[in-house]
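User: My instructor asked us to take a sequence, write out its structure as C-alpha cells, and then describe one feature of it. I'm not sure where to start. Here is the sequence I was given:
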Amino acid sequence: MSRTSAFSIDDPALDCPVSPEAVGRLAKADPRAVKELVDGIPESTRARLAVWLYGRSHTHEIGVRVAETCDGTSLRRAGGLIGNALYDLSRRPYTAPTHGTRATGPARISLGGTRRSA
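Assistant: Let's start with the prediction itself. The C-alpha cells for your sequence are:
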C-alpha cells in the first residue's frame, strides 16, 4: 500500500523536500543558475521540490525551472496530473502568469449605482 503525505495547513514548510536554506538560495538565485543549484539533489527529490515550488505563487517560475531538470516519470510520480502539466510547461519557453493583470486600461468603478430613466 502506498502512503502519500498530506500537506500541512499549519506549516507548509514541513512539506518541502529540501531545507529552507536551499529554497532561499533558489529564490535569490539568477533563474539561469537553478540547474547548478539543484545538481546534487536526487531526481525524485527535485521532482517533489518542483511540484512544491510550483504550487506557490511566489515560487511558481522557480518550480518550472527545477522541473526542467527532471524527467516526466519523476514529475508524474511526485505530482500526478500536476506533475504531468509541470513537465509540459517546463519543456516550452516560460511565460509569466497573467492572472491579476489587466490587458486594457484601468477599470472604471462607480459607487453611485446604476441610473434609471424616468
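For the description part of your assignment, you could build on this observation: The CA atoms of residues 29 and 37 lie 9 Å apart. Try explaining in your own words what that tells you about the chain.
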